[in-house]
Design a protein that fits this description.
66 residues, mainly alpha, single chain
Length: 66
C-alpha cells in the first residue's frame, strides 16, 4: 500500500503502474530531481493536489494492475 510518507521516487520505482496516475494529476516526477527527497504529502502540497485523492488513485492502480 502506498502512503503519504513514501518518497515519490520510491513509488515510481516500485510501482511503475502508478506513473499514469501521477500524469493525470499533472505531476511529472520522473523528470524531477526532488522526487528522490520529496514524499507524496510534500509533492501534493507543492502541486496543489488533494492528497487523499492522489493516494486513493495510486492505491487503486496497484489493485487493478497488480
Amino acid at each position: 500500500m502506498i502512503d503519504k510518507e513514501m518518497k515519490i521516487e520510491d513509488v515510481l520505482r516500485r510501482y511503475p503502474q502508478a506513473i499514469p496516475v501521477f500524469e493525470r494529476f499533472g505531476i511529472d516526477c520522473g523528470q524531477c530531481q526532488l522526487s528522490e527527497y520529496e514524499n507524496l504529502e510534500q509533492g501534493a502540497k507543492v502541486h496543489g493536489i488533494d492528497l487523499a485523492a492522489l493516494l486513493r488513485e495510486l492505491n487503486e492502480s496497484l489493485a487493478v494492475n497488480g
